[in-house]
Design brief:
This protein is an alpha+beta fold and about 425 residues long. The protein is about 30% helix and about 30% strand. The chain is built from 13 helices and 21 strands. Helix 1 packs parallel to helix 10 and helix 7 packs antiparallel against helix 8. The radius of gyration is 21 Å and the shape is globular. The structure holds adenosine monophosphate (AMP) and glycine (GLY).
């Protein structure tokens, strides 16, 4: 098969690494890729948002499969465009990607189909929004409807804070058109976990669960980021819990999307919270998480490629995947300043030594190589160092041992990834 992976982050490096290992993959391209991906795939200089360029490339090369990593091209309709051109594509159409692209759409779908999620209302008018915020009382959550690069959600401890968040979106227009509508919802108390399913329009095949760390600094403090680390499996979600999440949340969503004429095909990522009343849905993402993808793929024993093709072809019902029982931990190394302003271009040394650490993969996110091979930081999140171990402790030790071999003064990472899981028992799964 001739395959293109769209994107250039750690998630896409892990996807390329897994796909490159498939005996079914003959040619592997990545657009735009990065310095690490270039070890696995031929990088082509087309941006992930350049739909025309991507479709033209796919047609020119008569590709057999396009795997779309990030949400922006999915929401913009890349899969629709590829399908119209007769090219198989893994990922939802624009209509189905609304699950991530519009929080108001997701909430309405849930309330219409009885999928458990926080009570909410949607608003375009600031005064109406504030009146509802007063009615709900603190704590409460204000969300920009559209894609806002992870910055659109404000958890408010006071109603005054909620009023400021409402004004930021609806009056100051801090999120542009993504903040034309806001969703205001009740605050849910509990531990957050992430569940993932491969979906073919009808069937949801659950993958192992994971937990991530969104805050920039140790102790889950500091600004929100795209994700500073993740691990799988997690003691917070047993196999029995996973089956409940499938039956109560994921499958009903897949059925609802089909009933609405927006069948969902691709990877469905459910952000969940375990409350005293059971699991509630916080958000949907319509793609693999980053760095959750890295930990999942390190644990995947089966060939990823036939699974993605089965999702595209609507035959997941007869499909199964096997996983290593080991724990995978991923620690993100970011440029100092991220998620705020940061500088690009510093050379990173020691990568080869780090990659030699037992059971470690150094996935690249924002990196670029000079012609002489020097790897330079080229983004906010730059590396995601991922390790397997017999316990979360062992996987963490391997991650940090690899990181300690990396020579990059301008980089930082959290030193406490996985702290919530330490000392808690992970219930082993059958395979
Ligand atoms: P979202 O992008 O909707 O997942 O929101 C980002 C983060 O905000 C989540 O990971 C939660 O930590 C927090 N959050 C969102 N909605 C709620 C809620 N209703 N109750 C509590 N925390 C929330
Ligand atoms: N790590 C969170 C996400 O990919 O959305």
């Amino acid at each position: 098969m001739k395959i293109l992976v769209v994107g250039g982050g750690g998630r896409e490096h892990a996807l390329c690494w897994a796909l490159a290992g498939s005996p079914l993959a003959d040619e592997l391209y990545c657009a735009p890729g990065n310095a690490g991906i270039a070890q696995e795939a031929t990088c082509v200089e087309i941006a992930a948002e350049d739909l025309d360029g991507l479709v033209a490339f796919a047609c020119e090369r008569a590709l057999d499969l396009v795997v779309v990593g990030p949400e922006a091209p999915l929401v913009a309709g890349l899969v629709d465009r590829l399908q119209d051109a007769g090219i198989k594509a893994f990922g939802p159409t624009a209509a189905a990607a609304e699950l991530e692209g519009s929080k108001a759409f997701m909430k309405e779908l849930c309330s219409k189909h009885g999928i458990p999620t926080a009570a909410y209302q949607r608003f375009q008018d600031a005064a109406d929004a504030k009146a509802y915020a007063h009615e709900l009382g603190a704590p409460l959550v204000v969300k920009a409807d559209g894609l806002a690069a992870g910055k659109g959600v404000t958890v408010c401890q006071t109603v005054a804070e909620a009023e400021r968040a409402i004004d930021a979106a609806l009056v100051q227009r801090a999120f542009g058109t993504a903040g034309d509508t806001v969703v205001i919802e009740e605050f849910l108390e509990g531990e957050e976990v992430s569940a993932f399913a491969l979906v073919d329009g009808e069937t949801a095949l659950m993958l192992p669960a994971a937990q991530d760390h969104k805050c920039a600094y140790d102790g889950d403090t500091g600004p929100n980021t795209g994700g500073m680390g993740a691990y799988s499996p997690t003691p917070a979600l047993s196999d029995a819990d996973l089956e409940r999440v499938r039956a109560e949340i994921v499958q009903p969503t897949v059925d609802a999307m089909a009933a609405e004429g927006r069948p969902f095909q691709g990877l469905l990522y459910a952000g969940l919270i375990r409350t005293a009343d059971g699991f509630q849905l916080l958000e949907y993402n319509v793609r693999f998480g980053d760095p959750e993808c890295q930990v999942l793929l390190m644990r995947l024993m089966s060939d990823l490629l036939p699974a993605l093709v089965a999702a595209c072809d609507g035959v997941l019902a007869s499909f199964d995947l096997r996983w290593y029982a080991e724990t995978a931990v991923s620690v993100v190394m970011a440029t100092r300043g991220y998620p705020g302003a940061y500088e690009k271009g510093e050379a990173i040394g020691g990568l080869d030594g780090a990659a030699e650490t037992q059971d470690v993969m150094v996935f690249h996110a924002g990196t670029k190589a000079d012609p002489d091979g020097t790897v330079r930081a080229n983004g906010g999140r730059v590396l995601s160092v991922t390790a397997l171990g017999n316990s979360i402790e062992e996987a963490r030790e391997r991650c940090y041992a690899a990181i300690d071999r990396i020579d990059w003064p301008g980089g930082f990472c959290r030193r406490d990834i996985g702290w919530r899981a330490l000392g808690r028992e992970i219930i082993p799964s059958e395979d």
